[in-house]
Design a protein that fits this description.
Elements: E1 11-20, E2 23-33, E3 38-43, H1 49-56, E4 64-69, H2 78-82, E5 85-88, H3 100-108, H4 117-123, H5 139-151, E6 157-161, H6 169-184, E7 188-193, H7 196-202, E8 205-210, E9 213-218, H8 220-226, E10 231-237, H9 243-250, E11 256-262, E12 265-270, H10 274-284, E13 289-295, H11 299-306, E14 327-328
Parallel strand pairs: 3-7, 3-8, 5-6, 6-7
Antiparallel strand pairs: 1-2, 1-4, 8-9, 10-12, 10-13, 11-12, 11-14
Bound molecules: adenosine-5'-triphosphate.
Adenosine-5'-triphosphate (ATP) binds near residues 20 and 51.
GO cellular component, one term: plasma membrane
GO molecular function, one term: ATP hydrolysis activity
Pfam families: ABC_tran (PF00005)
């Protein structure tokens, strides 16, 4: 990859690690961001997202691993990258009395070829607030100003960290529209977030970070598909059946991961053509189903499942283990996801 290669990745991070004292914040993280993508870095609080993007931005030096941004080394080539990478970091604050237009003019003066502040006011929906002091802006307006400041150098890559944290749903949606407009203007975006809805709505691809490591990479749909094994089917026979009859019918059905009977209701977790396979298997045993209900995994379920660590077990949802109160089929009980998924 060279600085002049317009087709190469915008970010290439390989085997990055970083510790703070005894805290291993980032462990062997590799990711590649393509030109024009909105690339999400998604994970729980403390997962290592900010440390990862700070290494990519050249604000922290990795203990191990390499980073290239636009073909440059963020630490060694910091001056050159300053012109090409825009940063909006958590908790950015400005002097209370600084006015919106003054802030943009000030930041524009740092660059050789800045964007027109008036264009940024329009893009970010801040024209009516151009003369307002920072302290008089709403939370959403402050966030949009911080994005405008990240864009004033006309960056090729914008890194936006927890952009919508603390915003109400309306302001959040307005900010999402702004992010899409920025991408449409040709800027590649790395978006750090712990909000699944935000990642699902905006991101072309997501790196799911858990415990400092990459738990999965893919499109939102691909990441949801990783937990397709976590579909949950509930079926009530039209006449009561012995537990052994219901569980025995499912023994050997390939898409079934786990099955249990509780109060006459059969609960089955699995993937693939789960509904069809289960209903056919029951039918073969002469069991008719009066009532059937299927829950599909969402990105939120995938997030909970894939970011579950030993110190923070899954909280629930379709991805959580099925009830243990009922009886499980011996052929399938205990089948749990153990591998690190890659899409
Ligand atoms: N400057 C620091 N000194 C010591 N420990 C730190 C420092 N910065 C982060 N950490 C620790 O490193 C780990 C990863 O933190 P990091 O901020 O990268 O996570 P994050 O995913 O961005 O979290 P959040 O969403 O809460 O901002 C956490 O355990 C955090 O407490």
């Amino acid at each position: 990859m060279s600085t002049t290669d317009p087709t190469g990745p915008v970010v290439r991070a390989e085997h990055l690690s970083k510790s703070y004292g005894r805290t291993r914040a980032v462990i062997d993280v590799s990711l590649t961001v393509g030109r024009g993508e909105i690339y999400g870095v998604l994970g729980r609080n403390g997962a290592g997202k900010t440390t990862t993007v700070e290494m990519i931005a050249g604000l922290r030096t990795p203990d191990a691993g390499t980073v290239e941004v636009l073909g440059l080394d963020p630490t060694r080539d910091a001056a050159a990258l300053h012109e090409r990478v825009g940063l909006q970091l958590q908790e950015s604050a400005l002097p209370d009395r600084l006015r919106v237009r003054e802030a943009l003019d000030l930041y524009a003066s740092f660059y050789a070829d800045p964007a027109d502040p008036a264009d940024l006011l329009d893009l970010l929906g801040l024209r009516a607030k151009a003369d307002a002091a920072f302290k008089d802006l709403s939370g959403g307006q402050k966030q949009r100003l911080s994005v405008a400041l990240a864009l004033v150098g006309r960056p090729e890559l914008a890194i936006l960290d927890e952009l919508t944290t603390g915003l109400d749903p309306h302001a959040r949606r307005e900010t999402w529209a702004v992010v899409e407009a920025i991408r449409d203007a040709g800027v590649t975006i790395m978006l750090v977030t712990h909000l699944m809805e935000e990642a699902e709505r905006l991101c072309d691809r997501i790196a799911l970070i858990a415990g400092g490591r990459v738990a999965a990479v893919g499109t939102p749909a691909q990441i949801v598909a990783l937990t397709q094994g976590e579909q949950v089917l509930r079926a009530r026979p039209d006449v009561p059946q012995a537990d052994d009859v219901l569980l025995g019918a499912l023994a050997g059905v390939p898409d079934v991961v786990d099955a249990a009977v509780d109060d006459g209701v059969l609960t089955v977790r699995g993937g693939g053509a789960l509904v069809q396979d289960v209903l056919v298997a029951l039918d073969r045993r002469g069991v008719r189903v009066a009532d059937v209900h299927l829950e599909r995994a969402s990105l939120e379920d995938a997030f909970v499942t894939l970011t579950a660590t030993d110190d923070a077990p899954p909280a629930g949802g379709a991805a959580a283990p099925a009830t243990t109160r009922g009886r499980r089929t011996p052929a399938t009980a205990g089948a749990r996801r153990t591998s690190t998924p890659e899409v």
